[in-house]
Amino acid sequence: MHAACFTTPRPWSAAEIMQTLDSAFVFVLTEPGGFLIGRVVAGEAELITLAVDPGARRCGIGGQLVARFLAEAAARGAESVFLEVAADNLPAQRLYARKGFEQKGKRRDYYRRPEGARLDALVLGRGL
Question: Whole-prediction pTM value?
Answer without folding.
Answer: 0.89
